[in-house]
Amino acid sequence: MRSKIISFLESRLISIVCIISLLIATFYKVNISDIISYETLLTNIITVTSIFIGILMSMLGFLLTVSGKAVVKNIKKFGVHRKIINYFIMPTFSGVIIVILSICISLFDAGKINRNIAIVTSILWIMLIIYFILSFLRIIILMYFILINVFEEEDHENRILKGNYEEDKSSLENKNINHSSFDKPDDFY
What we know:
Blueprint: H1 2-28, H2 38-65, H3 70-77, H4 81-107, H5 115-174
Helix pairs in contact: 1-5, 2-4, 2-5, 4-5
């Protein structure tokens, strides 16, 4: 039951929230040009979105560096690697569209654009931002779980190596060096 809920939230939550926000934005006929300093808002959205795209690319690079780990091998083994790649591609793609759309919106004079076009553009812009933020959060959470598994795997490997080292150390300590003579070098091996 828990896995079904998690699967539903992972695959459908973003769509549901986007549809709800679309209905709300359409009902209220949101127009970003009605905001007093919408140009500052556009500039800030461009900046934050660009930073988040950079973070996404860094996380993708991290995933490539741990590609030899068991957790990544299991991801590929179970066939979810394409889904994870899409989880990286979709927010990156929507982020680039947000940046381009924000630049285009800032280039046009708000008073000269047809109000209906401005409303549709604003709703599209808001939808993309909501989709981008939720997709970004989804991949952050996913990478958090992958990172936990990588660290647990490294801790397990370190415990095994340390355990073997401790066994070797204790076996050397158990040899009775005091009763051996230096005439027989085999006593030390």
